Amino acid sequence: MSARSTSAAVRKFRRERLIGRYLANPAVGLLDRLGIRSAFVSELETTGAKTGEPRRVPVTVAYDDEGAWLISQHGYRSGWARNIAVHPKVRLRQGKRWYTGTAAFVPDDDVSARSRSMAQGRVPESAAEWVMKALESDAISVRITFTNA
């Protein structure tokens, strides 16, 4: 990757981190506290890499029988990805149910195909891929294998 594309990815990450941290994530959290939950949003709980404290963030997840797939749009730069790199044991909430598991990065996974698989139907698949392309800087797939499924 060239220095120019790397600096562009960092700028994009910083801009989107501000939007997520101060607008999107608090809005999703407020709706959750009001009891308004979406099937498209789950809550990922990691252990802070520096603090050791629990950290929660809304994420889009594709579940299967043994675990779940997530995409870190900013690769290892995102806060929850840095936390997973240090503490791979995580919890994931779908609705009212919590799952525990171990997260691992899957750098060889096709992120575009993975984002399409997270939506059902032609229009949602196209929309999911478009949103992923618009938001990602250094996307990487993350696999969570459940230990209590």
What is the arithmetic mean of pLDDT? 79
- Estimate what percentage of residues fall within beta strands: 25-35%
Given the structure, what is the number of helices?
A: 4
- H-E order: HEEEEHEEHHE
Counting DSSP E segments of at least 2 residues, the number of strands comes to: 7
Any guess at the CATH architecture? Roll
Q: Would you tell me the structural class of the helices and strands?
A: alpha+beta
Helix content: 40-55%
For the record, what is the CATH homologous superfamily label? Answer: Electron Transport, Fmn-binding Protein, Chain A
Quaternary organisation? single chain
Q: Strand order, biggest sheet? A: 2-1-5-6-7-4-3
Number of domains: 1
Task: Specify the CATH class.
Answer: Mainly Beta
* Low-pLDDT sequence parts: none
* Ends distance: 39 Å
Overall 3D form: globular
Rg (CA only): 15 Å
Give a short account of the largest sheet. 7 strands, antiparallel
Could you please say which CATH topology applies here? Pnp Oxidase, Chain A
